[in-house]
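2024-03-11 09:14:02 DEBUG pipeline.ingest accepted 1 chain
2024-03-11 09:14:02 DEBUG pipeline.ingest length=141
2024-03-11 09:14:03 DEBUG pipeline.predict start
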Amino acid sequence: MSINRVLISGNLTRDPELRATTSGMPVLGLGVAVNDRRKNQSTGEWEDYPNFIDCTMFGTRAESVSRFLSKGAKVAIEGKLRWSQWERDGQKRSKIEVIIDEIEFLSARGEHAAPPAQAAAREVDIPPAPEVTVYDEDIPF
């Protein structure tokens, strides 16, 4: 048995890049910076060391997600690792990336939002919640 699951939380290092395969399937590319805290042996101080992780999402969800993210946004990603190898200019190249199954936006609404033209298109009217009063005797314990 083998398990290939990855959970990461960090900030986008660049604006998401939406492309399409030759068959027309949307493909979203993200870069996520995840800090690793280590003690500096020289100074004894704790320091953050960034890890830069390439992430890819496929399908119609990738197209939708691309409208809500921009550089600096904080996200949580669940997915699996995939190793790819190719050749460019006679040189063999390879990389490990996270294939996104689930993504959660962790930045506050409006923080790191898309440009105003896109933001206006996604605004939704949410009715105000009714005011609720709770007394101690309403709590069953």
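2024-03-11 09:14:41 DEBUG pipeline.report The chain has a mean pLDDT of 83.
2024-03-11 09:14:41 DEBUG pipeline.predict end
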